[in-house]
Amino acid sequence: MTTVFILISLVFGAYLVAVIEDWALTGRFRLTAPVFSALALLGRESVLPRKLDRVFFEVAPVLLLLSAVLAVAVVPLSPDLIITDLATGALFINAALVYVLVALLMAGWGPDGAYAMIGGWRFLGQLIAYAMLIVMPLTAVVMRAESMLTTEIVVSQAGLWNIVYQPVGFVLFFIAAMALAFLPPFDLPTSKGDLAGGVEAEYSGVRLAVFRLGRLVLIITLAAATVIFYLGGWQGPWLPPWAWSAIKILVVTAVMLLGGRMLPRIREAHLLSWCWIFGIPLALLNIFLVGVLVLVFP
Amino acid sequence: MTAQTFFIGFFGVAAVWFGIVVFRTFSMVRSALALLFSQTALGAMFLSMQVEFLGVLQIMMMATEMTIMAIFMVMFMMDPGGLGKMDMTHQKRLSLAVGIVSFVAAVAVAVFIDWGPLASTAPDAAQQTVDLGLELLGRSMLIFETAGITILTSMIAAIAVAIQPLKRNDKS
Question: Tell me, what's the ipTM?
Fold first, then answer.
């Protein structure tokens, strides 16, 4: 029952993400736009490239969707509303989301097209930039909670949310999460301007619909992860816990989608050097500071 | 046969099968990703054996490592797409012999070693993580640090080999 409820809210969440993204892109708030574009995609022919790697081409969109959905399994929307409370929850989210890279690489290599391939390899470079900035801030979060159970991590923020307790970690994680979801300004693998859609370029019809759905679910998953790791999860006054989760997840999603649009697309080399020269030392500093705080004010 | 035994066997067979696929394909990226799914199946075997942390870690680490290996293979191989039916194998007799000897040695170690008394129940997943942490910071620390430094050195060496040397008149 919990699983069904969470999956339904995930679909609804993906729909809302699509509405917000459309709003951010066109400036018009249209509740029906995602429905029409989904119908249009499903109605169109799904063209196959001429010399493709069939296995990769078919598997990639499904794998993208699957990895985002798997990560949701350990996200608690309220103390009881969680599919499985794994003892390695914080690590599991990571493990599931690493397969986003595998999916994009497959989507890049599969169709045997130049733009797609450049997009796929670009995302590998992007992973080298953001991966450490996901894992290291998470280490600090886990250190404070003294547990990798996602429910324990939320409970550990009862007195003070992690966004206040470890603001450096939050900023790094937020940026890295946006890079993982290849949202602007980190939309290097799917950039419209210089790669004509990149890994999306050769997809059409139902396969593109699955790919886009996977991306929407990925965005909502990362927003949910940000909420449980840094924004106190379901905690909040007056409203029921699930409502707080929903509100916070939507706000984070909106900030991710609207904020990135204001910035120019980052260059791959800049992303890599900034992440390694500034990001990783800051993440280490964050771990050190949280370690001191945990020891001094247990 | 319990469900646990079934799944251990299933993922074991999957791991071996994907291992075979690595050498049956001409495409370097397919080869690397087949190795990835072989390692993922190993991670799933860990999970079936109730070793949660190691299983999740294996599934996570291998995805990054094998995709990075894919780009190294594309960089270094003369025909990464496998379109020219390049033969990946060489020194066949030697590798066959080495393969058989190492297989027999591994099986012999598994069969003949004294593994000590079997634990009747696995500790719960959170306890396993604690135990593993203490082990890694205790007697296994030297081994893991050595392995880490070795891997880092070989990564730097591989990148150094991949970079084209700067020609004298290119310096401007």
Answer: 0.84
